[in-house]
C-alpha cells in the first residue's frame, strides 16, 4: 500500500477499535523509537526473555532482534504481560552463523553494534555516545555473549558493579541500560522519533493484532478498493 492507502486502511480499521484504544495508540506511538534497538543472542530462559520485552516496551524501543544459534527464544506470557503484542520481533535462525547475519542486517540499516559485557572495559552509560543509531546486544544468562558477538562488535558497554557477584541478571541489565539511554535520548536534540509513515505502519499492525479476524477486514478493504477503481 502507498501512504495514502495506508491512512485510509487505518481509518477503516479504526471503526473496529474503541475510542480509548485509538487514543492510547496515538499517545504511545509518539514515544516509540528505532534510534535504539535491542538484540538478544541465544536467550533461552523464558522469564528473562519476557522481562526484556517488557522493558523495551516500557522504554519505547520498538524492535527486538532475536538471534537463535543454539537456543530457541520463548516468551513467558505471565512476565511479558502482552508486551510482545506491541513490539516487532525480528528473528535470525536460518544462517550458519546467525550472529553475523544479524550484525550484517543491522549495519545495513545504519546501526552500530554495541556489545553489553562486564569483561570489556570500554564505555559506561555515562560516556557512551547516543548520537548515531545503536543496537544493544545482550547475551545468554550463563555465558554472556559469544566470542563472535564480542569480536565483531563496534563498541562495548558495561554497567559499573561494586559487589561480589560477577554480573547483573540480563533482564536487570537490559532494564537499566534501556531506561538510562532512552531518557538521555529524549532529553537530547537528536531526532529519535519515528517517521510519520513508520508510525502509521506500526499503528496499523497494533490494530490488526487487537481486532479479531483482522485479516478478513483487510481483505474486505482491499476488495472495496479494487471495486472503486
Task: Provide a concise account of the structure shown.
The chain has 229 residues and is α/β, with parallel strands linked by helices.
What is the CATH domain class of the largest domain?
A: Alpha Beta
The appropriate CATH architecture of the largest domain is: 3-Layer(aba) Sandwich
Instruction: Compute the number of strand runs.
Output: 6
Strand content: 5-15%
Spatially, the strands of the biggest sheet line up as 3-2-1-5-4-6
Mean of residue pLDDT values: 89
> Low-confidence runs (pLDDT<50, min 5 residues)?
none
Under CATH, the homologous superfamily of the largest domain reads: SPOUT methyltransferase, trefoil knot domain
- Structural class by helix and strand composition: alpha/beta
Main beta sheet strand tally, sense and closure = 6 strands, parallel
**What would you call the shape?**
elongated
Number of helices: 9
Number of domains: 2
Alpha-carbon distance between the two ends? 15 Å
Would you give the CATH topology of the largest domain? Alpha/beta knot
Topology pattern, helix = H, strand = E: HHEHEHEHEEHEHHH
Write down the Rg: 19 Å
Helix content: 40-55%
Question: Could you walk me through the main structural features you see in this protein, from its secondary elements to its overall organization?
Answer:
The mean pLDDT is 89. Helix 3 (46-59) runs parallel beside helix 7 (170-186). The chain is 45% helix and 13% strand. 30% of the residues are buried. It has helices at 3-14, 19-29, 46-59, 77-80, 98-108, 147-151, 170-186, 196-210, 214-228, and strands spanning 36-41, 63-67, 88-92, 112-116, 134-138, 155-157. The chain starts with a helix and ends with a helix. The longest helix has 17 residues, at 170-186. By secondary structure, the chain is α/β, with parallel strands linked by helices. The protein has a 6-stranded parallel beta sheet with strand order 3-2-1-5-4-6, with helices on both faces. It has 2 domains: 1-30 and 198-229, no CATH class; 33-192, Alpha/beta knot, CATH 3.40.1280. Helix 3 (46-59) links the parallel strand 1 (36-41) and strand 2 (63-67). It has 9 helices and 6 strands.
